[in-house]
Amino acid sequence: MYFYILTLFPEMVRQVLSTSIIGRAVQNGYLHVKAVNIRDYTADKHKKVDDYPYGGGAGMVMQAQPVYDAWRSVLGEISNRQGGMRSRPRTIYLTPQAPVFSQGMAKELAQEDSLVFLCGHYEGIDERVLEEIVTDYVSIGDYVLTGGELPALVMADAIARMVPGVLSNAQSGSTESLEGGLLEYPQYSRPEEWNGKKVPPILLSGNHAKVDEWRREQSILRTKSRRPDLLAQAELTDRERETYL
Q1: For 134, what's the count of Cα atoms within 13 Å in the CB-facing half-sphere?
Q2: Is 132 helix (H, G, I), strand (E, B) or coil?
Q3: Distance of alpha carbon 46 from the chain centroid
Q4: Cβ(132)–Cβ(3) below 8 Å
Q5: Secondary structure of residue 49 in the 3-state scheme
Q6: Radius of gyration of the chain (CA)
Q7: Angle between the 149-160 and 10-17 helix axes, to the nearest 10 degrees?
Q8: DSSP 173-227
């Protein structure tokens, strides 16, 4: 899978996505990440990419031209790699004025060959270029950050985990929080007793069927306690709904 991140701060992106699980996936060829510096595509000799907003107001607005030309360069690279453009890539603009990112969205986007993330700054980006290139407007929450890089990194990390080969344990991506609309069950490791607290005996029993039942129950109970809003849409059996709702 190919990630293209249009940004004013490419080093910020490269440093994060070159480490840990994502970094190993890049080294092993499961992921390809390119940070595209929008400043490289400005026509301004001083590398300026912003200007005052029409109509007045505080702050500056990123101009359409450098953003559009940076995006066009990505399209050219994708076309060369594919031997011709198969379809227009999903281009995601990170903004709090959008639907909130979710695990389901991560799964959907992980099916794409290429994703383009557009990171805004200042007071935003000229609306005309957004209308021209953006296919998806996405938020990571109802709050405002100084730029789109952190949201892009959050999304890239979550999406990458859904790409085959990225996680060493094939089960890891399908047995954790938010799968099936439930939070993940509690986890324990050695020693069996720590600070007066013991590992639940069922986990030491060797009875895998009983362990699975316990984990399922704990997932439901934890979701009910911490995120009751998720339960209405969770994948529950009729008996589980009668018992826990």
Answers
A1: 22
A2: helix
A3: 33
A4: no
A5: coil
A6: 22
A7: 30
A8: GGSSTTGGG-PPPP---S-SEETTEE--GGGGS--HHHHHHHHHHHHHHHHHHH-
Separation CA 77–CA 91 (nearest Å): 15
Q: Give the whole-angstrom CA distance, residue 106 versus residue 178.
A: 11
Q: pTM value?
A: 0.88
Nearest to 151 by CA among 114, 99, 78, 111: 99
Return d(Cα 109, Cα 101) in angstroms, integer: 11
> Other C-beta atoms within 10 Å of 136: how many?
18
Give the pLDDT confidence of 126-176 residue by residue, as tens digits: 999 999 999 999 999 999 999 999 999 999 999 999 999 999 865 465 555
How many other CB atoms are found less than 10 A from the CB of residue 190? 7
Answer yes or no: are the C-beta atoms of 130 and 16 closer than 8 Å.
Answer: no
Give per-residue pLDDT as tens, 209-239. Answer: 999 999 999 999 999 999 999 998 899 999 9
Sheet with 2-7, side-by-side order of all strands: 32-37, 2-7, 114-118, 90-94, 136-138
Q: How, if at all, do strands 90-94 and 2-7 pair?
A: unpaired
User: For the segment 48-78, what is each residue's pLDDT rounded down to a tens digit?
Assistant: 999 999 999 989 999 999 999 999 999 999 9
